[in-house]
Write a structure and sequence with these properties.
Blueprint (H helix, E strand, L loop, with lengths): L2 E6 L3 H10 L7 E7 L2 H8 L6 E4 L8 H11 L4 E6 L4 H8 L3 E6 L5 H49 L5 H10 L8 E9 L2 H8 L3 H17 L3 E8 L2 E8 L2 H23 L3 E9 L2 H13 L12 E3 L14 H13 L3 H18 L3 H23 L7 H9 L4 H22 L6 H12 L7 H7 L4 H12 L3 H19 L4 H7 L5 H12 L3 H7 L1
Parallel strand pairs: 1-2, 1-3, 3-4, 4-5, 9-10
Antiparallel strand pairs: 6-8, 6-9, 7-8
Length: 534
């Protein structure tokens, strides 16, 4: 186990001497910073807290003991060595309270002595970290076992048809759940847009659900007797035990709203809650929970980040395709005239039409997939641009969306991205030479393209062509080439398994480093970062 250390002293020769003389690698210690005072060390090392601090006491801005007090609070396992000119009992006494391993006077210091001390610290700290890791692992396993027992109990509740209430309560008790009550009010907590959340946070659904569960438990415990059970990674079932369901529901509505706000504030997440009818037996609870959990179409027209009393939804049976041509024309025209504002209005109008008519969710998704695929095909034909989603991937994405609110948001984002791609590659010049040049670049994006080669292709003087292209497009030719190539690079990073080096070669860049530098300058992140983010 490699430990980390920092040196803090306003006596620069001491810092330099120790940083160069101590055999850090042999000690399995990485020296991650050298600082001239306590404040500089505290501010500089907060993002990567050290295991060991070697420090002076008397320093400007923040002395060594004040700094150690801050580090000790942030890292309870911290170990420290004090190097000082002070030979006073009061300093040594205060230092011992801060887990200081030794207090060494500078005039008596030698490197061998410090290395022996660091070796002892390393052994002791490594053992303590291992013990702490074992305790953490044990607690995690215990939590997983408790969670698994609760999940099994919920599954049995949903599908075990012959339980009496007494047998059901006994089984709950064996699973660690105290549910003795006259009535049970159930509600389901759904993490909105979980796929987007996991991708943006780079966290798995289990971790996110665990965080939501903790906030819920903290809010509910103060006012209700309840249990929270995970059904899936984006669904939690909550059972509230009570004797007076009318009174309890009034208070519960307030508690759920408070929980939704707390989750939004502390976790930056949106959750939607479906509140079920009260139940007095396993059978009535099963009848309440099953449609809430399994018929996802019932949630389609419910607003996100709200509380909804669960009721069976009624869908219209009309034919959506009677309006297909009109909406396709409206959205296609917005793309053609490069109007993002018109595009937003068209999508909003379409969503309002769907919600007003309350078409079945499967019909809405089928209709939308047809529209998006038709628009993608038109884009591919007119500008030789590859589709930004394969048909299979687009199908999976759309069918993984469970609310109209999310579907509207996705559709607008998808079309705006298509709009941006069209805007980048659209040809607006009236000069035939410029139109031919842009068409050539789009069709030969994988080749190495130079100003001189393009001028020769058009039978023009290179200086004249350069001025013409700049005047007509407001950017020089090479800038345009790189812009088209980077759009293609983004597509390949999203959809292919090609490495950054393979994409660089594929797009005609002789130098991989130049490609990465250009990508980062224009996109704001490296190709690897862009691929992992998407």
């Amino acid at each position: 186990m490699v430990l980390t250390a920092i040196l803090v002293d306003d006596d620069y020769p001491v810092v330099r001497y120790l940083s160069q003389s101590v055999s850090w690698k042999e000690l399995d210690i990485e020296l991650i910073g050298c600082y001239s005072n306590g404040l500089e060390a505290w501010e500089g090392a907060q993002q990567n807290l050290p295991d060991i601090v070697i420090t002076d006491i008397g320093m400007p801005k923040m002395n060594g003991l004040e700094m150690l007090e801050k580090f000790s609070k942030a890292n309870p396992l911290l170990r420290a060595v004090i190097l000082s000119c002070h030979n006073e009992f009061a300093y040594a006494q205060q230092a011992m309270k801060l887990k200081v391993s030794d207090y060494i006077l500078k005039e008596s210091l030698n490197v061998e002595q410090l290395q022996r001390l660091l070796r002892n610290i390393s052994v002791d700290l490594s053992e303590e970290k291992s013990r702490a890791a074992e305790v953490t692992l044990y607690m995690q396993k215990e939590a997983l076992n408790r969670s698994a027992l609760k999940e099994k109990w919920l599954k049995d509740t949903l599908y075990q048809l012959s339980w009496t209430k007494q047998a059901w309560l006994k089984h709950a008790q064996m699973s660690g759940l105290a549910l003795e009550a006259k009535y049970y009010i159930s509600f389901v907590v759904i993490v909105d847009r979980m796929s987007d959340v996991t991708r943006a946070r780079k966290m798995n659904g289990y971790t996110i659900a665990f965080a939501v569960e903790n906030v819920l438990q903290e809010v509910l415990d103060s006012m209700h007797r309840s249990v929270i059970i995970r059904h899936t990674n984006n669904e939690l079932v909550v059972l509230v035990c009570c004797d007076d369901p009318v009174k309890e529901q009034q208070l519960l509505f307030y508690s759920i709203q408070k929980a939704i706000s707390a989750i939004k504030q502390y976790l930056k997440l949106s959750v939607t809650c479906l509140l079920g009818h009260e139940a007095s037996s396993p059978d009535s609870l099963r009848q309440t929970l099953l449609p809430m959990l399994h018929d996802l179409s019932q949630r389609f027209y419910l607003g996100e980040s709200r509380i909804h009393r669960f009721e069976r939804a009624i869908f219209a049976g009309g034919d959506m395709y009677t309006e297909y041509a009109a909406y396709f024309s409206k959205i296609n025209d917005s793309l053609a005239v490069s109007s993002a504002e018109q595009l937003e209005i068209a999508v909003k109008d379409w969503a309002a039409w769907v919600e007003t008519n309350r078409f079945h969710p499967s019909d809405v998704k089928e209709w939308l997939l047809q529209l998006l695929m038709d628009l993608q095909m038109k884009t591919k034909v007119t500008l030789q641009v590859q589709q930004n989603h394969s048909e299979e991937k687009l199908y999976d994405v759309v069918n993984g969306i469970h609310t109209m609110e999310h579907l509207q948001s996705f559709t607008l984002d998808y079309l705006l991205e298509l709009f941006r791609r069209l805007s980048v590659l659209s040809i607006r010049s009236k000069r035939t030479e410029v139109i031919k040049a842009q068409q050539y670049v789009i069709q030969h994006v994988t080749e190495k393209l130079t100003l001189e080669d393009m001028a020769n292709y058009l039978n023009l003087n290179s200086s004249y062509f350069s001025r013409l292209f700049k005047r007509e497009t407001n950017q020089n030719f090479i800038e345009y080439v790189n812009m088209v190539k980077l759009q293609k690079a983004k597509q390949l990073l999203q959809q292919s398994s090609k490495t950054v080096e393979e994409i660089s070669d594929y797009l005609g860049y002789a130098n991989k480093s130049y490609f990465i530098k250009l990508f980062k300058r224009e996109i704001g992140m490296t190709p690897s970062e862009y691929a992992s983010w998407n």
